């Protein structure tokens, strides 16, 4: 059933999987996602290809409960997810060598690209030297990590590191790495990949099937294992109409996020279709696709059409390859037809003409508001109306950041921000002194086209000079607030962030800021000028005699500026210049197959879990609850990424080892040191352990009444050979694809995590670390369980009989002798996940498979 055939295009003859022949009359009914998966299994699944193909084809008639193996053609990572993965790999290589095996057995079998984008912080801002100063600080703080990454680039096959300054991973993927159609070894096939970041689906905007996975799962793919998934349930979003004048792709993305979050999209894929799709540029589609994790799905897919070809041309792709993409997609039934309605499991209707100017906040990205309603939202956070004070007001904008791949990858949005700045500058407007302004584009190309359009000078005049090319404020690397804002916070006044990012959880953008609003880049500039969110930004005065209508650019003005700015060779030139980094070239990295561990290092430590392991954590046992948590616990809550406080457990550990207490760096930079990360678990100030709500975050209460930091409590339980569990509410593990959130659970000794529901990537990461995720039965929550430190939980998870979605018996053994019986569901989706749990995690499984084949 492989349906191999040949295809002539571009003067060459290519091997392809004949999709129209393989699918027959079902092809037109299949979502494009299923078409791409069908091609993938027929080409790569070997003896499992026929069964997998039949399962995918059957999905055009209704839901199918069957597993399929997906083999991506490449992997994308960033520096703070690749760091832990590389430490794992270096540790596994050491394990292999100690066991008498060749460490080179452990080598990626497919291309892996790493973008160094997550460590840039906004220390300097507002001046033309800010970018150079921030880059110098980045290398100073992260030199040891970067040398380690450079070692890996030399020691591992097919492993490429893109140095600091080359932009954000998803923009790099859009503008440079993605082929849309791969041409390799005489074959043509769809570009399909995974990334160790939840926003990997951004590239869905140009027709590349991709989704985010945890770093642990990515490691298994490095070494030849497939991504095993059930035939995905595909939800269709039918778009009609056209965006009104003055409404941006950001406004649409926030509306899509709001609408889709109302639906249970766990483990489901989303595909956009309908005539409205054809009115959107590829850049606008990418903005929407970037928000996929925020609306809770695996993908936000847009098929290939003329807009994608236009984007490939505009970003400097080879014309011959662009023609090949079109020919292949038309031949294979992968070309978008706006009149076509595939068979989706569910359809959501969105009329683009009804979208209005929006923000999201103040605490979650799915909480869309009309841009006019920020005053009401701020009052809810504050618990009352704004106070009239001198100086920095209540509801002041402490941070105004044009940041994140989400919106800075669309030139139209960047130009719109520049035009608002130009009009404001002409009127003599500047932001108030308490506003920390910054511009951190996802691509080094942005500076070139903004300068050519004459808009860079206007942005700089308002304080929006480029601080670097990286994630910065979007992931919490926002640097210190202005002195005025810090004083206002000390006096109890509400301060907020306004950013063009994708997440605004309390404390994420900055640890002192409890509220944040997501907005389009031009709206960020407008709020910076206003200085606060205590007004209707659409109609109230931003400055005396000036409203947003006086500043907002028309579509004609944006198009004219884009025409002036555009030059397709910018993309090749800008990236080539950024890749040719003198500072990166000067890094002195080891040249060896094995990494030379340094026990004195505070950045890179050999991890205790990168070996053959201690076996399965399954079985029947009685566990103590070490943590009981509420709803919406994010991976930021579990394993922080931001600044390491000197007075915390992690800070004290580092200071005791000679680190400067005034510059401990951020947790995301220390993920190669398990001792530091262990001490940072659950220390976010918004985390409450319901076992003892009065104790500090990051701690627990033992049955003997002692309150201890979690890592010390884990040592006590480990010495007593007492298993522990974590209990949580809905959407446990939402947010970033942070494998340390799962590694931390394993290091705390958790054999299971019991939750009302799990976010997809974190669930998979827990299994990757050998920890069993259990869904609580309907109606049972942490609150209704009302666990105490004296209670025990008996779990019966027999590894011989456990299967995907199996019932698992629980008994709550109360301290007073009462016993309550419950039945949970194993949150396991595939047979590979069962095998992973039986082996104690993915890293032991990888090592055992490799050595068995050696």
From TrEMBL:
Q: Biological process GO terms, please?
A: tricarboxylic acid cycle
Q: Which reaction does it catalyse?
A: citrate = D-threo-isocitrate
Aconitase A/isopropylmalate dehydratase small subunit swivel domain: which residues?
Answer: 652-778
Determine if Iron is one of this entry's keywords. Answer: yes
- What cofactor does this protein call for? [4Fe-4S] cluster
Which keywords describe this protein according to UniProt?
4Fe-4S, Iron, Iron-sulfur, Metal-binding
The GO terms this record gives for MF are: 4 iron, 4 sulfur cluster binding; aconitate hydratase activity; metal ion binding
Supply the enzyme class, top level: lyase
Query: Where does the record place the Aconitase/3-isopropylmalate dehydratase large subunit alpha/beta/alpha domain?
Result: 67-531
UniProt pathway? Carbohydrate metabolism; tricarboxylic acid cycle; isocitrate from oxaloacetate: step 2/2
Family annotation (Gene3D superfamilies): 6.10.190.10, Aconitase, domain 3 (3.30.499.10), Aconitase, domain 4 (3.20.19.10)
* Superkingdom, natural source: Bacteria
Q: What is the E.C. number?
A: 4.2.1.3
Any keyword Membrane? no
Q: Where are the transmembrane segments?
A: none
Q: Which family does it belong to?
A: Belongs to the aconitase/IPM isomerase family.
Q: What is this protein called?
A: Aconitate hydratase A
Native source organism of the sequence: Paracoccus zhejiangensis
